[in-house]
């Protein structure tokens, strides 16, 4: 994705108040992010560990909440964005408050996403070659396309009336 500024990030949120957006903590490595290898920017708030953010090209930002009690230590579920089957990273049910009026009525949408939002790196790892997929580089390209598509659709779920 194209690089975006902290100011653009803070004004991109569709389901966060101005003060929530103002208070967010940017990713620690923000100044050295490799934007070329990111399909979205996702991170956990260092100061509020149950809070996560996902900013998709546009940019459109979604504020997310992790379940109380932290990670469930299993990989029996797939991340809905990267669908990576090899990663050992936990997957959490991240909850987004819906945008607008339904948000004020405490209407939320849950999505299973990697606990640390490492999806963009996951889809870029070449899987072992096998008979069905003899060309790992082609698999990577397909995975990146899939992640881009699913990520692009994500905000509409939060903004749905
Ligand atoms: Zn993922």
Describe the structure.
The protein is of the alpha+beta class. The chain has five helices and five strands, in the order H-H-E-E-E-E-H-E-H-H. The protein has a five-stranded antiparallel beta sheet. The mean pLDDT is 90. A hairpin with a 6-residue loop joins strand 1 and strand 2. 27% of the residues lie in helices and 19% in strands. The protein binds zinc ion. Zinc ion binds next to strand 5 and helix 4.
Put the structure in a nutshell.
This protein is an alpha+beta fold and 161 residues long. Helix content is 27%, strand content 19%. The structure holds zinc ion (ZN).
Biggest β-sheet, characterized? Answer: 5 strands, antiparallel
Would you count the extended β strands for me?
A: 5
Bound molecules: zinc ion
- The radius of gyration computed from the alpha-carbon positions, rounded to a whole number of angstroms, is 16 Å
**Straight-line distance between termini:** 28 Å
Q: Descriptors for this entry?
A:
161 residues, five-stranded antiparallel sheet, 5 helices, 27% helix, binds zinc ion
Helices and strands in order:
Blueprint: H1 6-10, H2 18-23, E1 41-44, E2 51-56, E3 60-65, E4 91-97, H3 101-104, E5 108-114, H4 119-123, H5 136-159
Antiparallel strand pairs: 1-2, 2-3, 3-4, 4-5
Zinc ion (ZN) binds next to strand 5 and helix 4.
């Amino acid at each position: 994705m194209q690089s975006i500024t902290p100011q653009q990030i803070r004004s991109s949120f569709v389901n966060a108040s101005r003060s929530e957006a103002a208070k967010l903590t940017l990713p620690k490595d923000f100044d050295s992010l490799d934007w070329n290898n990111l399909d979205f920017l996702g991170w956990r708030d260092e100061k509020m560990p149950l809070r996560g953010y996902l900013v998709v090209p546009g940019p459109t930002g979604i504020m997310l909440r992790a379940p109380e009690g932290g990670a469930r230590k299993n990989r029996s579920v797939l991340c809905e964005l990267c669908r990576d089957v090899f990663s050992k990273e936990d997957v959490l049910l991240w909850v987004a408050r819906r945008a607008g009026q339904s948000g004020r009525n405490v209407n939320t949408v849950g999505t299973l996403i990697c606990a640390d939002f490492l999806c963009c790196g996951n889809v870029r790892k070449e899987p072992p070659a096998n008979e069905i997929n003899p060309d790992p580089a082609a698999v990577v390209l397909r995975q990146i396309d899939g992640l881009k598509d699913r990520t692009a659709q994500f905000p509409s779920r939060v903004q749905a009336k």
